[in-house]
Amino acid sequence: MKLSWKTFLLWSLPIMIISFFLWQGFLTPNSNDLNNNNTANSRMTYGRFLEYLDMGWVKKVDIYDNGHTAIVEAVGPELGNRLQKIRVELPASAPELITKLKKNNIDLDAHPTKNNIAIWNLIGNLFFPLLLIGGLAYLFRRSNNTNGGPGQAMSFGKSKALFQMEAKTGVIFDDVAGIDEAKEEFEEVVTFLKQPESFTAVGAKIPKGVLLVGPPGTGKTLLAKAIAGEANVPFFSISGSEFVEMFVGVGASRVRDLFKKAKENAPCIIFIDEIDAVGRQRGTGIGGGNDEREQTLNQLLTEMDGFEGNTGIIVIAATNRADILDSALLRPGRFDRQVSVDVPDFKGRLAILNVHARNKKIAPTVSLSIIARRTPGFSGADLANLLNEAAILTVRRKKNAITLNEIDTSIDRIVAGMEGMPLIDSKSKRLIAYHEIGHAIVGTLLKNHYPVQKVTLIPRGQARGLTWFTPSEDQNLISRSEIKARIMGALGGRAAEEIVFGDSEVTTGASNDLQQITSMARQMVTRFGMSSIGLLSLENEESNPFLGRGMGSSSEYSDEVAIKIDEQIQQIVQECHQNTLKIIQENRVVIDRLVDLLIEKETIDGDEFREIISEYTSIPQKYEYAN
């Protein structure tokens, strides 16, 4: 097993500390070799030693420890007339002893002290500090060679950009679908990096920056990975939030370090994800802006298009809040191009589903075209999540391939939430059934309303029942009749409750419907000029993002106009409500039949729903769409 340096230090440091103290206390050499040479078996007092000396029993004396200790060889009756070695502790001052020993002709030998105490003490005192300094130096050296781990205080001003000399992200342009216009822009950038001479021959210059703008999940970061996979140039990837930290000047320092590395490896690509974290408008917000963030932005502006310039460096940035970026950052010369990455249309969704279905086992009966048609407004990330949820559900149901049933359930779960417990057959269940059938039948009998996909009484999230409509096409322009049809469709549930149960039994189930109705009617009056007030735009969607939601909004019209707006909104809703009540009253028989069927089956799909209605009345021809 390979032992890492961290594990080695973790185990060896305590052992070395314990060994150091043991060494200091027990293993440090003494001042002489007394312990090594001492073989005395007994001790004798100094007075008794003098008596032995007077009696002539002492034969030899060896003096150690600077005259403090003596090993005496003596013989006498008390010692069994045998020569023995005896240890004697000598007094600090005994000048007469040497004279007395010489007078009695005693064999005297002195053993001087070896002068190595200071050396050993010095080594022992320096051992632990040197060990500590060495360990800290190793940790600091290791932190400078890596991007993570403890001890980054010495390198907090360095760029944290992920650098790939030969970018291999596993993603290429073929793996990116649904954003063909954005792909064309970046295919041109990649061609410029690979074959710059074909552009420079006619005087074209490489774009300095490309800004990707779009909602979350539409594939901005995935597109940047595809650029890294296609271009054989160094690729730097960093998030905007990694520039700024608590230390003053760190952000600007990291920007300088990033572009310094990029210049050394030019031509190359720098990708900054979520650039709005550092590129917001300067001097904004309550109480002023963040000075440290503004200095980081100033440094970024200078590096992108300052006096020096950055030849061969293309900066690609991504954000979903282009409205809050500083205007100096968006001008030509810094970000020359702005590429919009929107939610995909039907063709885009179909292409994205084809990409994500490559590694999924899908039943032959499943049509990806139907799935794409049923998922308007889904981003690329939503579609990837949809197929993954369907695959998980397939395993849970112990099936071998994904069927349309699992995909429908996954769509319902993503849009409306997890499935709840089925309702018990009661008055509440019947009331919910009338409410949902009211939505469905009004939407079906209106020409300009989307067709019904299915009606269900299975609770999901906060909703106790749901009516699903399938948009006929991806529309950017909506007519007045279509908005009114949507208002009437939303009023269908409340109108059914009023007709069947009476005004006194209406419930709070239409609260969300009423909010949507009011919002649509207000936009007709104040934004779209679809009322008798005239062709005036009295409200707009723009607001100051730095003041918070609703704080920066203010009315741009007089109180008299506000009263007229309220009157027009009320008039539109009342007109739609009366038309909705009329539809419910004229189709009461088929509504009762559909409610009984819905309570029995809990779910009715759109085809069966329209087939039953067609037995009682004609259904207007709606928009044609491909399955």
Protein model, in words:
The protein is of the alpha/beta class and 627 residues long. It folds into four domains: 34-110, Signal recognition particle alu RNA binding heterodimer, srp9/1 (2-Layer Sandwich); 162-340, P-loop containing nucleotide triphosphate hydrolases (Rossmann fold, 3-Layer(aba) Sandwich), CATH 3.40.50; 346-416, Helicase, Ruva Protein, domain 3 (Orthogonal Bundle); 427-614, Methane Monooxygenase Hydroxylase, Chain G, domain 1. The protein is 47% helix and 11% strand. It is built from 21 helices and 14 strands. It has helices spanning 5-27, 34-37, 46-55, 95-103, 117-145, 180-194, 197-200, 220-230, 250-264, 291-305, 327-330, 346-356, 368-373, 380-396, 404-416, 427-445, 480-501, 511-526, 559-586, 588-601, 606-614, and strands at 42-44, 58-64, 69-74, 84-89, 107-110, 162-164, 209-213, 235-239, 268-273, 313-319, 337-340, 452-456, 466-469, 603-605. The strands form three sheets. It has a six-stranded mixed β-sheet. A five-stranded mixed β-sheet has the order 1-4-3-2-5, covered by helices on one side. A hairpin with a 4-residue loop joins strand 2 (58-64) and strand 3. The relative contact order is 0.06. Residues 26-32 and 146-154 have low confidence and may be disordered.
Largest sheet: 6 strands, mixed
- The low-confidence parts are 26-32, 146-154
Q: Which class of the largest domain in CATH terms?
A: Mainly Alpha
Please state the overall shape, judged from the principal axes of the Cα atoms: elongated
- Our count of domains comes out at 4
